[in-house]
From TrEMBL:
This is P-type ATPase A domain-containing protein. The keyword Phosphoprotein applies. It comes from Daphnia pulex. It is a multi-pass membrane protein. Pfam families: Cation_ATPase, E1-E2_ATPase.
């Protein structure tokens, strides 16, 4: 069996730092950074190449640390339960202790009395267990002050007339990762369970797989960024063509051109939100129910047989007998709709629907109770041989409580209609059907919608006159499965109007998230248990409401443990998106401005010096771009959302106009320089490139202020970010850089009129130009005179 099923492990590969480094460096971004370092090093621009190298090393180090930390956390989460010892019975009555990693399906394990974490999925066959399943369900019970998590009671599986099914026999199943708080048994008997699943096939294993292998998510911002970079690449090709033309026509052999580089990972990842799906827990509340006609002395009451709760049947029952009574009685509790279908119509109170609706609309979780007196001729042996359906003479979960919670959260504003959607699978000759009912009139169906069958292609029921913007749909997971299978043409229409989605399994939650994404929504999901990991990983924005397994799959973890953090996430996400667009456009325009500056100077056979490039690239652009992202989000949410695409007509028009304006200002400043009476144009000889000249000084000074002005222009404020002056670091940097640029403009380090040539022959020519009477015609010069 061990060779067939393998070891009971959920192996999570934790890569070494060296392997992670190789994978990370092969990322296209870092390949580009390596190429940039090589280019600038070959071009003797050592300072900038060193800066790129240092920033890239820091970025890679942080990324490696985060990836390794997440992998180790996930591995520790999966390895905690397999390192323990388990008592197992494999041959007769002989028990032995083995490591949990060697468990295989079919083993019979003994459950310790307290404090045992299940290392596998097992079916309870003897004894009773009280377990904490909050790891899987995420549900908390606030009424229990001594225990934060809601315990579940597991009972032995009865003699089955059908194949085992996890959904049907969940009451008897101990799931991997759950904590056994207490066991109950009779005498010296052990509490036993049969292993049915191990490793990745367990309930916890499926959740781990959903974390390790999520469905890929593509952000539109990244796609737009690549398209925009391709556009800039086309502009760069035009510039290169112009440079080649200048090279051929003017014979220039040296140039510092096309410094077209976006340094370091400066772009903040965008977080947008269109739809958030919440996971809610409902608190039980006492309703003040008073029993006036039934008086029972529980000390005289004996339990004869139990029928445990079944989620598919939505009820549980118990057969009891009072001491001295000739009859046994069947007591049943469950959902009100289910209990009503089991009762005689004459025994149901006339105000049943009214009372039920009043409680559910107030947010109460309602349970119905019923009893039946069994035939006095029914013996104890006959009663134990009877099937459950013969002793109990099925409706959807009551969504009215979920609707009430939605109204409390303002998801359903007062006055807007809510429709309950229920669907049933085909039964016999009856086709699949969908029923729409008004939540405010629980028993009244909408006349126009009625019931639809899968064979009626023209029966839509949800036409445009009913699906107004002020109408909401509420449905459960089972209904959604029926719609997917039998009414796929209605799935998208129902999802668009669905506001309340309740009673869903982990797979159903993940499917709903993916279906909303296919509709074009940016989906957020809030979850607090391991059963939410798949949906948290699949969503664009996952918010964990606990520090347990859900926090591993979600990029955000709420400290408060409730959904009050969602507005904060939305404000932060909108701020991040606007900041991303602003920084991206700033970096693009910075490259284009520098591109235009170099082209202008290159056409004049000169260029900026290395220190000038370093001042622009490192001190101005990098500092400003990093600090732009420190502006806080606006404290109030607005109705309209920010633009979600980078390649919109307004964005492209803004960039084109900015490029034209900056080019016009630089050309205008250069033209104004040429009109000055003291201006002397630069005249390099041969392949010489003269950097200290009037043209370079003017272009350098003008472009320095253009970079600073652009930073202010793209530092967007309300309604998504606070004003730029609230960002103290950014404001301080702008003031310092502006002051320093003014100093460089007023008092340049190398005045073109007083600059000293670097070449010796230039120095000699300068000396000769100052000595007008040399050589002395008609005079003899001795060595003593020359030395003087």
């Amino acid at each position: 069996r061990l060779q067939l099923h393998g070891f009971n492990t959920m192996s999570v590969d934790v890569k070494s730092y060296w392997r992670l480094l190789i994978d990370e460096v092969l990322n296209p971004f870092y390949l580009f950074e390596i190429f940039s370092c090589i280019v600038w090093t070959v071009d003797d621009y050592i300072y900038y190449a060193a800066c790129i190298f240092v920033v890239s090393i820091i970025s890679v180090g942080v990324a490696l640390y985060e990836i390794r930390r997440q992998s180790e956390t996930l591995k520790n989460m999966t390895a905690a339960h397999i390192s323990s010892m388990v008592t197992v019975c494999r041959s007769g009555e002989v028990y032995e202790n083995i490591y949990a990693i060697r468990l295989v399906p079919g083993d019979v394990i003994a459950i310790p009395p307290t404090g045992f974490m299940m290392p596998c999925d097992a079916v309870l066959v003897a004894g009773t267990c009280i377990v904490n399943e909050s790891v899987l369900t995420g549900r908390l019970l606030n009424l229990l002050s001594y225990c934060e998590s809601a315990p579940e009671t597991k009972t032995p599986v009865p003699d089955l007339d059908e194949s085992y099914c996890t959904d049907i026999h969940k009451r008897h199943t101990l799931f991997c990762g759950t904590q056994v708080l207490q066991t109950r048994y009779y005498g010296q008997d052990k509490v036993l369970a049969v292993v049915i699943r191990t490793g990745f096939t367990t309930a916890k294993g499926e959740l781990v797989r959903s974390i390790l292998y999520p469905k890929p998510i593509g952000f539109k911002f990244y796609v737009d960024s690549l398209k925009f970079v391709l556009l800039l690449f086309g502009v760069a090709l035009c510039g290169i063509t112009y440079c080649v033309y200048v090279y051929i026509t003017k014979g220039v052999r040296k140039t510092d051109i096309t410094r077209y580089d976006v340094m370091a990972p400066l772009v903040v990842k965008p977080v947008t939100r269109d739809t958030f799906l919440g996971v809610h827990g409902f608190d039980f509340a006492e309703t003040g129910f008073e029993v006036s006609r039934i008086r029972i002395n529980f000390s005289d009451l004996g339990i004869v047989r139990q029928f445990p709760f079944s989620s598919s049947l939505q009820r549980m029952s118990v057969v009891v007998r009072t001491l001295g009574s000739a009859n046994m009685e069947l007591l049943c509790k469950g959902s009100p709709e289910m209990i009503r279908t089991l009762c005689l119509s004459t025994s149901v109170p006339d105000n049943f629907a009214k009372v039920l609706r009043s409680y559910t609309m107030r947010g109460f979780r309602v349970l119905a109770l019923a009893h039946r007196v069994l035939d006095r001729r029914l013996t104890w042996h006959q009663m134990h041989r009877m099937k459950r359906e013969h002793m109990e003479n099925n409706s959807s979960d009551n969504l009215l409580t979920a609707i009430n919670v939605g109204r409390d959260c303002d998801m359903l504003p007062v006055g807007e209609k809510v429709i309950l959607v229920t669907a049933s699978s085909p039964k016999g000759t009856a086709p699949a059907s969908i029923t729409y009912s008004l939540a405010e009139m629980y028993e009244t169906e909408i006349e126009e919608s009625g019931v639809m069958s899968s064979s009626e292609s023209d029966a839509i029921g949800l036409d445009s006159k009913h699906l107004t913007p002020r109408l909401h749909l509420a449905l459960g997971g089972k209904t959604l499965d029926v719609i997917r299978k039998h009414f796929p043409q209605l799935l998208q229409r129902i999802l668009v109007r669905a506001t309340i989605l309740a009673r869903m399994t982990p797979d159903q939650k993940t499917k709903v998230v993916e279906e909303f994404q296919e509709l074009g929504y940016a989906v957020g999901f809030c979850g607090d248990g391991a059963n939410d990991c798949g949906a948290l990983k699949a969503a664009h924005v996952g918010i964990s409401l606990s520090d347990a397994e859900a926090s591993v799959a979600a990029p955000f973890t709420a400290r408060a443990g409730n959904i009050s953090c969602v507005p904060t996430i939305i404000r932060e996400g909108r701020c991040a998106l606007v900041t991303s667009f602003g920084v991206f456009k700033y970096m693009a325009l910075y490259s284009l401005i520098q591109f235009i500056s170099v082209l202008i100077l290159y056409s004049l056979r000169t260029t900026l010096g290395d220190y000038m490039f370093l001042y622009h690239d490192l001190f101005i652009t990098t500092t400003v771009a990093v600090l732009m992202g420190h502006t806080e989000p606006y404290p109030h949410l607005v109705v309209h959302r920010p633009r979600g695409s980078l390649l919109t007509s307004s964005n492209m028009l803004s960039l084109v106009m900015q490029i034209a304006l900056t080019a016009a200002i630089q050309l205008g400043a250069l033209l104004l320089l040429m009109l000055q009476p003291w201006y002397t144009p630069v005249r390099p000889e041969g392949d010489e490139v003269i950097i200290p000249c009037w043209e370079v000084t003017v272009i350098f000074s003008i472009s320095s202020f253009q970079y600073l002005i652009l930073a202010l222009a793209f530092s967007y404020g309300p309604p998504y970010r606070q004003p730029f002056y609230t960002n103290k670091l950014f404001l301080f940097a702008m003031m310092v850089l502006t002051a320093f640029s003014l100093v460089l403009t007023q008092r340049p380090t190398n005045d073109p009129r007083n600059s000293e040539p670097k070449n010796k022959y230039k120095k000699v020519e300068l000396e000769l130009s100052l000595e007008k009477d040399w050589p002395p015609l008609g005079q003899a010069s001795t060595s003593e005179i020359l030395s003087l």
